[in-house]
């Protein structure tokens, strides 16, 4: 099967950081179908060779085994091409058309990794140039729009020229190996199903913490903020994966129907709820990797009076029979104490205690998304008794222990990264791990009251870089009698 992958934003941050490394790995391991071309598109005046050199320079910083040898890069470079385009000029789309028609590939992937503000006009121009054919698949990066209205406008524009099954709305969290394994654990095993409900689960915590700041993306981030950048998409997709009912089969729409139901069941925001259960923060100066780092407002590209949030902590509930009353806590932020993404399902304590047990949560299932991928089941056990002198034996306390499944250790090999997996799915036409329009709109609908309230009211609370965010986040969860895992 031949394919052309047209990468709009071919010299941009995403192509640089994620897409090119993912495509290279897929190429290196023989997973990309043979006879493909990758066509980077951007405004810069570059030849094919100059583009190849630029991409090669990206790999120079890569450590160890992931760095291509000269030979390997040369092979990869043979499928890399470049087209300079001014995305506002119809003539440039005609040039792209010529390049594509010369080849007539079975699949033409158009990957929009440009600023979202350009999506609508790019899609319209693609159609005007007749480049929307049955072979076309369009990949739309997040955030798709700025709010519900702009999201709908983009989706309307795209759906005018392509059918829903040609549209791949990407959320790379769905491509992470642990998220795949969450589906496998929940729907491939019957073990957890009976306890996966309000009668047994005390609370669920979703943490997506980053230790990095906004890096070179200050001007983008300052217009976006953590709610749009991480919660509306990644965190809510994790809520869906944890909370959804078993789908009737593994087809894309069966899965997406169930995720949609979760999003529709999320407790709506009232003004009072927002005051109590939505905390936003912004990092100030502090320490990261043992060094002093500047506060958010001093980052390049950021407004020195910015009110953009770099941290969010929320409490919500899925209001249905399975989950009613179970708090779901979500938190995410930049410049936090560590890079750590995980979901914790905290189970209720034993109903009647016959042992002495340590304080804190006895039973929890942790789904580690990064830096390591795996599952941990936390239990209490009786430690092996050390021999003691007669008369000194005392009733010992149960000890917390873990059953630990580390996917890298268990399955070995090099893990397939999220972008690699998802790019291959686009080329294969598999939609399971992509977001349908109605899901995306529902997620925007849910966050919109927060966006509105925060736009008109107050400022984020400050937190020092290198900490776990403002103390109000701990106070919020403590009011329910719980604590974030690092505080337990
Ligand atoms: C992206 C956000 O979607 O996800 C970034 O735009 C964030 O701000 C990134 O850093 C986090 O992804 P990961 O896979 O490193 O957790």
CATH first level of the largest domain: Alpha Beta
Net shape: globular
Overall structural domain count: 2
Q: What distance lies between the first and last C-alpha atoms, to the nearest angstrom?
A: 53 Å
* Low-confidence sequence ranges: none
Question: How would you summarize what this structure contains?
Answer:
With 488 residues, the protein is an alpha/beta fold. The protein is 36% helix and 21% strand. The chain has helices at residues 13-28, 48-60, 70-77, 90-101, 119-128, 148-161, 177-188, 218-222, 225-243, 252-265, 271-277, 407-411, 418-428, 437-456, 471-478, and strands at residues 3-8, 36-42, 80-84, 107-112, 136-140, 167-169, 201-209, 278-284, 286-288, 291-293, 311-316, 328-333, 340-347, 364-370, 374-381, 399-406, 461-464.
Polypeptide structure, described:
With 488 residues, the protein is an alpha/beta fold. It folds into 2 domains: 3-169, Rossmann fold, CATH 3.40.50; 174-487, Dihydrodipicolinate Reductase, domain 2. Helices cover 36% and strands 21% of the residues. The protein is built from 15 helices and 17 strands. It has helices at residues 13-28, 48-60, 70-77, 90-101, 119-128, 148-161, 177-188, 218-222, 225-243, 252-265, 271-277, 407-411, 418-428, 437-456, 471-478; strands at residues 3-8, 36-42, 80-84, 107-112, 136-140, 167-169, 201-209, 278-284, 286-288, 291-293, 311-316, 328-333, 340-347, 364-370, 374-381, 399-406, 461-464. Helix 6 links the parallel strand 5 (136-140) and strand 6 (167-169). The model has no long low-confidence stretch (mean pLDDT 94). The structure holds 6-O-phosphono-beta-D-glucopyranose. 6-O-phosphono-beta-D-glucopyranose binds at residues 210, 229, 341, 370.
């Amino acid at each position: 099967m031949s394919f052309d992958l047209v990468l709009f934003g071919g010299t941009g941050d995403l192509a640089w950081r994620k897409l090119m490394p993912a495509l290279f790995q897929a190429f290196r391991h023989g997973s990309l179908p043979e006879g493909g071309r990758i066509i980077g598109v951007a405004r810069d005046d570059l030849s094919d060779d100059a583009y190849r050199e630029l991409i090669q320079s990206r790999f120079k910083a890569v450590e160890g085994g992931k760095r291509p040898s000269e030979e390997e890069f040369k092979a990869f470079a043979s499928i890399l091409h470049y087209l300079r385009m001014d995305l506002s000029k119809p003539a440039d789309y005609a040039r792209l058309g010529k390049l594509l028609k010369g080849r007539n590939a079975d699949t033409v992937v158009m990957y929009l990794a440009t600023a979202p503000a350009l999506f609508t006009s790019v899609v319209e121009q693609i159609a005007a140039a007749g480049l929307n054919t049955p072979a076309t698949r369009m990949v739309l990066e997040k955030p798709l729009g700025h709010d519900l209205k702009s999201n709908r406008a983009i989706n309307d524009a795209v759906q005018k020229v392509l059918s829903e099954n040609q549209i791949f709305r990407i959320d790379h969290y769905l491509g992470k190996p642990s998220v795949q394994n969450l589906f496998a654990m929940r729907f491939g095993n019957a073990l957890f199903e009976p306890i996966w409900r309000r009668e047994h689960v005390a609370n669920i915590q979703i943490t997506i913490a980053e230790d990095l700041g906004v890096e070179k993306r200050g001007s983008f981030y300052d217009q976006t903020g953590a709610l749009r950048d991480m919660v509306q998409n990644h965190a809510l997709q994790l809520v869906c994966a944890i909370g959804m009912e078993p789908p009737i089969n593994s087809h894309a729409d069966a899965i997406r129907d169930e995720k949609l139901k979760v999003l529709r069941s999320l407790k709506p925001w009232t003004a009072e709820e927002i005051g109590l259960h939505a905390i936003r923060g912004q990092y100030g100066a502090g320490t990261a990797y043992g060094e002093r780092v500047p506060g958010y407002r001093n980052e390049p590209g950021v407004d020195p009076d910015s009110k953009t949030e770099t941290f969010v902590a929320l409490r919500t509930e899925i209001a249905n029979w399975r989950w009613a009353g179970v708090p779901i806590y979500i938190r995410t932020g930049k410049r936090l104490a560590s890079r750590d993404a995980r979901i914790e399902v905290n189970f209720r304590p034993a109903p009647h205690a016959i042992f002495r047990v340590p304080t804190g949560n006895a039973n929890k299932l942790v789904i580690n998304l990064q830096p390591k991928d795996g599952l941990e089941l936390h239990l209490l056990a009786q430690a092996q008794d050390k021999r003691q002198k007669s008369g000194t034996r005392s009733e010992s306390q149960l000890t917390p222990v873990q059953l630990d499944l580390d996917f890298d250790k268990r399955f070995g090999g090099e893990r397939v990264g999220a972008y690699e997996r998802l790019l291959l799915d686009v080329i294969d036409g598999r939609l399971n791990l992509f977001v349908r329009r109605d899901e995306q709109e529902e997620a925007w609908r849910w966050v919109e009251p927060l966006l509105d309230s925060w736009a008109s009211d107050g400022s984020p609370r400050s937190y020092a870089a290198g900490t776990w965010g403002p103390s109000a986040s701990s106070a919020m969860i403590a009011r329910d009698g719980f604590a974030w895992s690092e505080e337990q």
